[in-house]
Design brief:
Growth Hormone, Chain: A; 15 helices; single chain; 2 domains; mainly alpha; 408 residues
């Protein structure tokens, strides 16, 4: 991969379309789509769950496919899947087909992301900076969606949601075409390295069984995934259908979330290096809890704007910092295996959270109940992070004592 600036550029735009269109834009289109198709909140929530389930399922599958055909081709095929699934969400009305399309959409988002990070890791030394730039594409895509989706939805009461999916599919297809020129075929030697394969196949249970800090970190990762997916999936429906804000206002609110995603990962990652990852994880989790709490009690437009701003400011920070915590708790050569398992557990929490939130809404008639559950879980995570900090502090003191004894 010789053309490294091109890799950053195409990586940015792949994240702009596949991650933002594939994972986050559904919350903006769902209210109009639900009205037109006449489905319940539970069924529409299940479509959102399908996106997460597809992402979860192909997180491992994309890695295996990369070992066979290479990361570059895996990314391109995944971007193609995103285009096809976005088009299908607009074209078909049968629920079963829509559910399949959402699963494929999530799988395409995973296959466009995980192998891309592998390619970047093989080409750059300063991983944090490049990763921050590329991941900024997700935020740029959410900003773009916040401004183009509402006018498309208003273009026709019955066809607006379809037009939205078609336009998103077209934009993603343009990125797919660009990827054939800018994302070159990589050297697969490192991908098929026998030692890496052996490490991936190792039983990771002992790593978790004898590492309390690791277990606690993964538990926090699971609970935060369970909690924040409720907000991400149902914020749009809550503000439009229950609170009564316009789709345009909701789109602008959601664009604040995307705006902060552009830089927040790099910001919190840098602070974590300086102040400690667990301390920063506590701060960003507290901000997530605050952002959720702002939309529960009263329908105040300034509070809703503040909520999406704070959520966007802290969301990518948590994703970035949790990886830093994991890397400090395990040997470097085990990071790929453990992070893959942690991602599986985290995504499982998202699947459960999206579905349970929809069920709670249908049972109670309000989104305030699932959002309140989300808030409670985030507060619980703050207590767990306090405990994690004490465990890490104890381990650090033991290392210092051991070092002192060796010197003496």
């Amino acid at each position: 991969m010789k053309n490294k600036p091109a890799l950053i550029i195409i990586g940015f735009f792949i994240q702009l379309t596949t991650m933002s269109f594939g994972r986050f834009v559904y919350t903006l289109v769902m209210p109009s789509m639900m009205k037109t198709l006449g489905h319940s909140t539970t069924l529409m929530g299940l479509l959102g769950t399908g996106i997460v389930a597809g992402y979860l399922g192909f997180s491992y599958g994309s890695g295996r496919l990369s070992n066979t055909i290479g990361s570059s081709l895996t990314v391109k095929l995944s971007v193609l899947l995103v285009s096809l699934s976005l088009f299908s969400l607009g074209h078909f009305q049968q629920y079963a087909i829509l559910l399949i399309a959402t699963v494929v959409l999530g799988a395409g988002a995973a296959g466009s992301y995980i192998p891309l990070i592998h390619i970047i890791n093989n080409n750059y030394e300063q991983m944090g900076t490049v990763f921050g730039i590329v991941m900024g594409g997700s935020g740029a895509g959410i900003i773009l969606s916040g401004y183009i989706i509402p006018p498309l939805l208003h273009a026709s009461p019955h066809l607006g949601y379809r037009l939205s999916w078609y336009v998103l599919s077209a934009i993603n297809s343009a990125v797919l075409i660009a990827s054939f020129f800018l994302l070159k075929k990589e050297d697969r030697g490192s991908i098929s390295d026998p030692e890496r394969k052996e490490r991936r196949m190792k039983n990771i249970i002992p790593l978790f069984a004898h590492n309390r800090a690791l277990l606690l970190t993964v538990l926090v990762y699971f609970l935060v995934g369970f909690a924040y997916i409720m907000y991400v999936t149902y914020f749009g429906t809550y503000t439009v259908d229950e609170i009564g804000y316009s789709e345009r206002s909701t789109g602008i609110m959601w664009s604040l979330f995307g705006l902060n995603l552009v830089y927040s990962g790099l910001l919190w990652g840098t602070l974590a290096d300086r102040k400690g990852s667990t301390r920063i994880a506590f701060i960003v989790t507290a901000l997530l809890a605050l952002s959720v709490s702002l939309i529960i009690p009263i329908p105040s437009r300034p509070l809703f704007y503040a909520s999406t701003f704070l959520f966007g400011l802290s969301f990518m920070g948590f994703i970035t910092v949790i990886a830093a915590i994991l890397s400090s708790e395990i040997p470097r050569h085990e990071m790929g295996t453990v992070f893959g398992a942690a991602t599986l557990i985290h995504s499982s929490g998202q699947v459960l959270g999206a579905f349970i939130a929809g069920v709670l809404r249908d049972w109670t008639g309000t989104f305030r109940v699932p959002f309140s559950l989300s808030l409670v879980l985030l507060i619980l995570c703050l207590q767990l992070l306090r405990r994690l900090g004490k465990i890490e502090g104890s381990l650090q003191n033991r290392r210092l004592d051991l070092s002192s004894n060796i010197k003496n």
